[in-house]
Amino acid sequence: DIQLSERVERVKPSPTMAVTARAAEMRAAGHDIIGLGAGEPDFDTPEHISEAAIQAIRNGQTRYTPVDGTPALKQAIQAKFERDNGLEYEANQILVSSGAKQSLYNLFTAVLNAGDEVVIPAPYWVSYPDMALLADGVPRIVEADQSQRFKITPAQLDAAITERTRIVVLNSPSNPTGSAYSRAEFEALGEVLRRYPQVLIASDDIYEHILWTEEAFSNIAMVCPDLVDRTVVVNGVSKAYAMTGWRIGYAAGPARVIGAMKKIQSQSTSNASSISQAASVAALDGDQGVIAPMVKAFRERHDYVVERLNAMRGVSCIAGDGTFYAYPDVSEAITNIEGVSSDTVLAEYLIGEANVALVPGTAFGLPGHARISYATSMENLEKAMDRLEGVFGRD
Ligand code: PLP
């Protein structure tokens, strides 16, 4: 057999794959499957953004750009950080990548040595632990369940940090739970982090704009200015501007870390697409009014889905603060169904019995739950909730 690296062998195939594969199979066989698994807005990219990309092609912006991004996009990102976050960065503190995902991958690869630990609150975005493993790091999972609104406490954070800890990941609002930390909560976590100067904070702000709390968006760098020097803020255009396919994300942080990330990117993928970068300038500099109608739709769907879920037998779902995900506790519902022993089995069962595809909580490090993406039409959601209720029954 051809030898594969230990690195790649370390990474487990995604537990969501079984469900996705099964859903595709069922669809191919003619079943009307409603997919609630998508991690992307169902809206089209706003017209002025697409138009900027077309213009870029016509203007011949079709060549390599600087590895870390075009000057125009880096300026737009600097302006965005000032406008939305009150954070000021020099140009050498910013790196444009092919998605926030690549920004995070660059970060882990730039910072971790073998055995270094990454503190990852669970439920987590599926890629954090595997990215840590690919960079020879060790994920240290900190579990936060529904009773704590899926948010870790300062005591939990303190207990998770060791002398091997190099990165703490914070994702607010969160995929998969929709929970966001408040300013006060960030302040309390910051107090812990202050005691561990060797620890870098990765603030994944990708859902920044998809938020409906009374309190405005914040991240730890905004709340604890003294921690800016060791925080890498990761963001992008994918979710806010319905631009998942364009693949533009960015990171901002200490020049040394950003420089190291840039070096890795320069030897792996170089610059992100020149055309997508031009589109992203239009997204960040253009009319921000395009975001609100999408957030309004997400919120209406959120309210509907959460209410329907809570009326189902053995299902309990807290209201989210943002994103387009609900993360109901289905542990009781599982025990009510003959032959279903876990959330993973439940997800497969639901595809067959209800023709609804969702992602089991196990994929996000907190079993007994399911992630429901409501980035789909209200019509689909109504049908999907009726079908789920058909399986679970009513309270
Ligand atoms: N971070 C989180 C929490 C996400 O949910 C996603 C996308 O699903 C990403 C980062 C990556 O976004 P992108 O690479 O499209 O910018």
From TrEMBL:
<keyword id="KW-0663">Pyridoxal phosphate</keyword>
<dbReference type="InterPro" id="IPR004838">
    <property type="entry name" value="NHTrfase_class1_PyrdxlP-BS"/>
</dbReference>
<dbReference type="InterPro" id="IPR015424">
    <property type="entry name" value="PyrdxlP-dep_Trfase"/>
</dbReference>
<comment type="similarity">
    <text>Belongs to the class-I pyridoxal-phosphate-dependent aminotransferase family.</text>
</comment>
<dbReference type="InterPro" id="IPR050596">
    <property type="entry name" value="AspAT/PAT-like"/>
</dbReference>
<dbReference type="InterPro" id="IPR015422">
    <property type="entry name" value="PyrdxlP-dep_Trfase_small"/>
</dbReference>
<dbReference type="InterPro" id="IPR015421">
    <property type="entry name" value="PyrdxlP-dep_Trfase_major"/>
</dbReference>
<keyword id="KW-0808">Transferase</keyword>
<dbReference type="Pfam" id="PF00155">
    <property type="entry name" value="Aminotran_1_2"/>
</dbReference>
<protein>
    <recommendedName>
        <fullName>Aminotransferase</fullName>
        <ecNumber>2.6.1.-</ecNumber>
    </recommendedName>
</protein>
<dbReference type="InterPro" id="IPR004839">
    <property type="entry name" value="Aminotransferase_I/II_large"/>
</dbReference>
<feature type="domain" description="Aminotransferase class I/classII large">
    <location>
        <begin position="32"/>
        <end position="388"/>
    </location>
</feature>
<keyword id="KW-0032">Aminotransferase</keyword>
<dbReference type="GO" id="GO:0008483">
    <property type="term" value="F:transaminase activity"/>
</dbReference>
